[in-house]
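Recall the central idea of this unit: under ordinary conditions, the amino acid sequence of a chain determines the structure it adopts. In this exercise we apply that idea directly, starting from the sequence alone.
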Amino acid sequence: MAVVLRSWGSGVVVLAAGIVLAVVTWTGGSPGGAVTQLVLFAVLAAVFSPLVFPRSVSAAEAARAGKPIVYWRPGCQFCLRLRFALVGSARRASWVNIWADPEAAAAVRAVADGNETVPTVVVGGESRVNPSPRWVRERLAG
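Accordingly, the structure predicted from this sequence is:
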């Protein structure tokens, strides 16, 4: 349960802030502005949630799939940058949420000097911590 709350935490906080702001705007006499704000914050909440990433698998499943592995966590701006840069090719990799899989977190710590720095990408045995989207796109294309 704690993993689920932590994974969705950023999105929930953004949505809650949007609701509060929309209520204040509505009571201030601007229902149209309130609706606009609420929609904007709902979209932002979705962006900061696990929803924008392909279905997360366990580290063991990712290893069996034989595809490149992208270790990520919800709320990580660098993971979002990579995910949006990989539009159209993101599903060619296995995406592993390190907050949902202790084995994945350990794998990241092993290549990131003991830190849980994400995104960490593993392709053909080569690991890169926070690689450039271009590097990942090139590996996924080949």
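The chain has a mean pLDDT of 88.
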